[in-house]
C-alpha cells in the first residue's frame, strides 16, 4: 500500500506514541518497589519479578515478530497488541494478590516484546533509505527518553496518588493511541503465509534461561547447582535453535544474515551503546545518593538534563547520518562515550554534582550518535524482506546485553566501587570504537532471503 507523506507521518506518530507508553512501563516500576513491598507484604527480591518477568517474556517473544509480520496484516496485529496490553494493565490495577498482578505484567511484556522489533521494521520498510537516519533518530528519541522518563513519571504519581495511578496513566494514553490507530495505522506490507515452527519456538526458550542466569549471577555461589544447570540446558537449547535456523529453508529467524559484516557491527554497536545508556540511568542515581548525599527525588531530577539532551540530539544525529554517512556519526558517538566515562573516572574524586551531571550528559549524547545510527546501519545492509528478521535479532541482542550490563555494573559496584564501574564501561566503549573502524563505508546491494 502506497502512503502519502502526511499519512506516513501520522502512521509513524501513532506507532511511536504507543511504543513510548509501553517503553515507560518497562522502566517505571523500580521507583514503586517499596510501595509494592508494603502493599503486598513481600520482599524486594519477589517484587523485582515485576521487571524481571516482564523482561524475560519480552525476550522470548521477540524472535516471533518476523513470523507474525509475515502471516498477519500489521493493523490488526498492532491493535491486538494494544488490546492485550490494556487487558494486562486492567488485571494489574484490580489484582487482589501478587500472582494475579504478575499475570497482567506478563501480558504487558508479551505486547512490548512483539511490538519493539515490529514497529522498527515497519518504520524502516516504509521509509526511503535516504531518510532512514532521520526517522530512526526519532525512534531513538522515543526509546531513550522513555527509559529516563519512566522513573520520573512513576515517582511524581506516587507522591500524590496510589500505585494504581501509574497503570491508570498507561490506560489513558493507550486509549488515545487505540483511537488514533483505528484511523491512522494501515497494513503497508503484503503477507506471505509461512509454517509456524513449534520446535524452534521451544528451543528459543533458552533465551529465558540465559537471562534468568544472568540476573541471578550476583546472588550465586559456586554451589548454586540449579542455576548452573539452567545455564547448561539454556545454552544447549540455543545451540540447537541456531543450528535449526541455519538448516531450514524457511526459518523462524533468518540467522544467516549474521554473515553480513555491517549487520554484525550494527548489532554489536547498538548493544554496546545501550549498555552504557542503561548503566548510566541505574548507576548515576546511586552515585548521587551514596556519594553526593542527594535525596532520591533530586537524584532522579539530576538525570533530566542528560535525558533532555539525548532527546534533542537524536533527530539531529539521524539527519547528520543521512547527509555524511553512518560511520563518522557512530564514531562521534563512541568518542563521546569514551570522553564521558573517562571524565567520570578522573573527576569522581571531586564529588561535584555539576561535574557528574555534565559527564552523564556527554555519555547520553554519545547514545544519540551511536545506538539508532548503528541500528539503521545494520538495517541498510539488508533487503526489505529481511528487515523484520534483522530488527528482531537486534532487539533480542540489545535486551540480553542490556541485562548483562546491569548485572556487570552491580557486581563491579559492590560496596560503592563507582570508579570500577566507570573504568569497566570505559574499556567496553574503547573496544566498541575499534569495531567502528571496521564499518564498510560502501556496501554491495542488500541480500535477499
From TrEMBL:
Taken from the record, one Pfam family name reads MFS_1
Question: What's any one GO cellular component for it?
Answer: plasma membrane
Q: Where in the cell is it found?
A: Cell membrane
The main location class comes to: membrane
Does this UniProt record's set of keywords contain Membrane? yes
Q: How does it sit in the membrane?
A: Multi-pass membrane protein
Q: Which domain of life is it from?
A: Bacteria
Sorted alphabetically, which keywords does the UniProt record give?
Membrane, Transmembrane, Transmembrane helix, Transport
Please tell me whether the keyword Membrane is annotated for this protein.
yes
| Protein's UniProt name | MFS family major facilitator transporter, multidrug cation symporter
InterPro entries in UniProt:
MFS, MFS_dom, MFS_trans_sf, Sugar_transporter_CS
Task: Cite the GO molecular-function annotations of the record.
Answer: transmembrane transporter activity
Native source species? Lentilactobacillus diolivorans DSM 14421
Domain Major facilitator superfamily (MFS) profile per the UniProt entry, residue ranges: 11-444
Q: For this UniProt entry, which segments traverse the membrane?
A: 42-65, 77-96, 135-157, 163-182, 194-213, 225-242, 294-313, 325-346, 352-372, 393-414, 420-439
Amino acid at each position: 500500500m502506497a502512503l502519502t507523506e502526511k499519512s506516513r507521518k501520522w502512521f509513524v506518530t501513532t506507532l511511536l506514541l504507543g511504543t513510548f507508553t509501553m517503553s515507560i512501563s518497562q522502566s517505571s516500576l523500580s521507583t514503586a518497589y517499596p510501595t509494592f513491598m508494603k502493599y503486598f507484604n513481600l520482599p524486594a527480591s519477589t517484587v523485582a519479578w515485576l521487571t524481571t518477568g516482564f523482561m524475560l517474556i519480552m525476550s522470548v517473544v521477540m524472535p516471533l515478530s518476523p513470523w507474525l509480520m509475515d502471516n498477519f496484516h500489521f493493523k490488526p496485529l498492532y491493535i491486538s497488541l494494544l488490546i492485550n496490553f490494556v487487558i494486562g494493565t486492567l488485571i494489574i490495577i484490580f489484582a487482589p494478590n501478587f500472582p494475579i498482578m504478575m499475570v497482567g505484567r506478563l501480558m504487558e511484556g508479551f505486547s512490548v516484546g512483539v511490538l519493539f522489533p515490529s514497529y522498527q521494521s515497519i518504520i524502516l520498510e516504509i521509509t526511503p533509505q535516504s531518510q532512514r537516519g532521520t526517522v530512526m533518530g526519532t525512534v531513538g528519541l522515543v526509546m531513550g527518553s522513555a527509559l529516563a522518563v519512566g522513573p520520573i513519571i512513576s515517582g511524581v504519581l506516587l507522591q500524590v496518588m496510589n500505585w494504581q495511578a501509574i497503570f491508570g496513566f498507561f490506560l489513558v494514553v493507550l486509549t488515545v493511541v487505540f483511537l488514533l490507530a483505528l484511523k491512522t495505522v494501515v497494513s503497508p506490507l503484503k503477507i506471505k503465509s509461512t509454517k509456524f515452527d513449534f520446535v524452534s519456538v521451544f528451543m528459543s526458550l533458552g533465551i529465558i534461561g540465559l537471562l534468568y542466569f544472568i540476573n541471578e549471577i550476583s546472588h550465586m555461589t559456586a554451589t548454586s547447582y540449579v542455576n548452573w544447570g539452567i545455564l547448561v540446558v539454556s545454552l544447549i537449547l540455543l545451540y540447537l535453535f541456531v543450528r535449526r535456523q541455519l538448516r531450514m529453508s524457511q526459518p523462524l529467524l533468518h540467522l544467516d544474515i549474521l554473515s553480513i559484516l555491517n549487520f554484525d557491527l550494527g548489532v554489536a554497536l547498538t548493544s554496546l551503546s545501550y549498555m552504557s545508556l542503561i548503566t548510566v540511568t541505574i548507576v548515576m542515581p546511586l552515585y548521587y545518593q551514596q556519594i553526593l548525599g542527594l535525596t532520591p527525588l533530586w537524584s532522579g531530577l539530576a538525570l533530566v538534563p542528560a535525558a533532555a539532551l539525548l532527546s534533542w540530539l537524536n533527530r539531529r544525529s539521524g539527519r547528520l547520518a543521512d547527509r555524511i554517512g553512518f560511520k563518522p556519526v557512530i564514531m562521534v558517538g563512541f568518542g563521546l562515550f569514551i570522553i564521558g566515562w573517562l571524565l567520570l573516572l578522573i573527576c569522581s574524586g571531586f564529588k561535584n554534582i555539576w561535574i557528574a551531571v555534565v559527564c552523564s550528559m556527554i555519555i547520553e549524547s554519545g547514545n544519540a550518535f551511536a545506538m539508532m545510527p548503528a541500528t539503521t546501519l545494520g538495517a541498510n545492509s539488508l533487503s526489505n524482506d529481511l528487515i523484520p528478521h534483522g530488527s528482531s535479532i537486534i532487539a533480542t541482542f540489545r535486551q540480553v546485553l542490556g541485562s548483562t550490563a546491569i548485572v556487570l555494573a552491580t557486581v563491579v559496584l559492590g560496596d560503592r566501587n563507582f570508579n570500577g564501574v566507570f573504568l569497566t564501561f570505559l574499556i567496553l566503549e574503547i573496544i566498541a570504537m575499534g569495531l567502528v573502524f571496521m564499518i564498510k563505508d560502501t556496501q554491495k546491494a542488500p541480500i535477499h532471503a
